[in-house]
Automatic annotation (TrEMBL), chains A, B:
<dbReference type="Pfam" id="PF20463">
    <property type="entry name" value="PDH_C"/>
</dbReference>
<comment type="similarity">
    <text>Belongs to the prephenate/arogenate dehydrogenase family.</text>
</comment>
<dbReference type="Pfam" id="PF02153">
    <property type="entry name" value="PDH_N"/>
</dbReference>
<dbReference type="InterPro" id="IPR008927">
    <property type="entry name" value="6-PGluconate_DH-like_C_sf"/>
</dbReference>
<dbReference type="GO" id="GO:0006571">
    <property type="term" value="P:tyrosine biosynthetic process"/>
</dbReference>
<dbReference type="InterPro" id="IPR003099">
    <property type="entry name" value="Prephen_DH"/>
</dbReference>
<dbReference type="InterPro" id="IPR046825">
    <property type="entry name" value="PDH_C"/>
</dbReference>
<dbReference type="GO" id="GO:0070403">
    <property type="term" value="F:NAD+ binding"/>
</dbReference>
<keyword id="KW-0560">Oxidoreductase</keyword>
<dbReference type="GO" id="GO:0004665">
    <property type="term" value="F:prephenate dehydrogenase (NADP+) activity"/>
</dbReference>
<dbReference type="InterPro" id="IPR046826">
    <property type="entry name" value="PDH_N"/>
</dbReference>
<dbReference type="InterPro" id="IPR036291">
    <property type="entry name" value="NAD(P)-bd_dom_sf"/>
</dbReference>
<feature type="domain" description="Prephenate/arogenate dehydrogenase">
    <location>
        <begin position="20"/>
        <end position="301"/>
    </location>
</feature>
<dbReference type="InterPro" id="IPR050812">
    <property type="entry name" value="Preph/Arog_dehydrog"/>
</dbReference>
<dbReference type="GO" id="GO:0008977">
    <property type="term" value="F:prephenate dehydrogenase (NAD+) activity"/>
</dbReference>
<protein>
    <submittedName>
        <fullName>Prephenate dehydrogenase</fullName>
    </submittedName>
</protein>
Amino acid sequence: MSELNTVEAEFHRVDRRPLRTAAVVGTGLIGTSVGLALSARGVTTYLLDRDPEVAREAAALGAGRAARPPHPVDLAVLAMPPSAIPSALIEYQRSGLAHYFTDVGSVKLPPQRTAATAGADLRGYVGGHPMAGAERSGPSAARADLFHGRTWVLTPSARTDPAAVARASELIRLCGAELLLMDAAEHDRTVALTSHAPHLLASLIAGRLADTDPARLRLAGAGLRDTTRIALGDPDLWTDILRSNAAPVAEVLREVADELAVAVAALDWLAGPDPAQQLRGERELHHLLSLGVAGRERLPAAAAQPAGR
Amino acid sequence: MSELNTVEAEFHRVDRRPLRTAAVVGTGLIGTSVGLALSARGVTTYLLDRDPEVAREAAALGAGRAARPPHPVDLAVLAMPPSAIPSALIEYQRSGLAHYFTDVGSVKLPPQRTAATAGADLRGYVGGHPMAGAERSGPSAARADLFHGRTWVLTPSARTDPAAVARASELIRLCGAELLLMDAAEHDRTVALTSHAPHLLASLIAGRLADTDPARLRLAGAGLRDTTRIALGDPDLWTDILRSNAAPVAEVLREVADELAVAVAALDWLAGPDPAQQLRGERELHHLLSLGVAGRERLPAAAAQPAGR
């Protein structure tokens, strides 16, 4: 944490000029939402997408101009899957799109390492990850207030110029989000626990409904809908995320698998004839359920958001 | 299904008199909500609870009268955990509380078997299960519209008097719910899949947050909140439910554990150095994620409900 503390101290000393110009590369849900938020706060925002039609769609919604900026902008936001970030960073650094770069990918350390190896200038780049999203994708799902009240992580490396952090933190402020500085590896281990492993488990539960008799699905209630909602996420994007964070996610899931084996053993004892084992199984399940209540109660309260489907 | 069809045909021939009097035994969330719905529709409803203070609390909310009825009522609703149902059914049948009985337990076959073995009169009883609930418990969480638009299963046995089914179906109509007749064993296997196994998995995920550093919890988003919401359920009640349905839940969880092992293997391949294995892992994960989307999209749309926490 001492390295992070140094970065934090330095970036507070950096001259904070307002963000005047920005570029968003990748105008999907997140990129377009960034464009909407920045444009609403008076930042001249340029929108780029590998599909120019999608950039024009975002522009039509008010997210900015679907054009390459005539001069380097203050900050470029790379809004694309983690695996696409290193090559995009190098390409746009070389073509002089912006003075500083950040991204919004769900995984931080591997893209940064790959970019460094491939020749990116890590001084002008700080990784970022806003804790916001939706099941739907594309510009039409975007909202200017998507990041409002949400945590937005920045993961500066030892090489990051404090001015890059200052620029990205100004972006975060303009989006109404709350900055959290974090070590990249620690970020990746954390989202493996809070997002990626839960996503895969939700997909496994939801997948079991794919060939279930429709009459039986009438017994599905609000609980099942909530618990599997995240499984609606785009499989292409989520394969990319899981691939980029494979080892930390596997570590969390191995621990879940161990606990699942304990739960199944407890259920087998309960289904069996031995009263002593039944009692043991009952205690084990009660313990698991109580731990679940304790863990869930520690989650921060929900930010105001429209209801999911 | 032929046995169920016979029951269905017979109960449609039964004389449908309006429900005039009812008793609710157990005035928690579900029982009090039943009382509120019946009282609002003009049914004289008597409320009983092992804790008389809780019954008086439900009565004060408008769910009925906290008293034993002077004469047998048309229908008694046993609103208690599955394991408490057999002895309550026998006790209240013997004391002549009601002409017919139903319950609202989440598991159907084992309580019915236990009740039959212990001497209950199965002719006057039909098992029931409304697909509604909340994380909070007790009378204060009850709502007259809790069952509105929800599926409410009845699981008549070969011995059930069609008049009992007619009585319970009138209760369901008055609560604004939709009747679904189902075989008890089929019901139990189905809720193992749609409710009990997902609950335990949500508890396992939530349990991992119990000792997580608070700073890391700032990375928890709406997805994690939704996916673990059901883990807030009362551990006592849920231990009872899981114990009563142990074998079917264990069967579902064993299948989930097998798929989890596949997912972990795929992640290990992706984290490893072999490009052929990486490709294989990527395909496997994409398949699991796509199946999750397909399964989730088959769930019926949400009934209008207040937002969960």
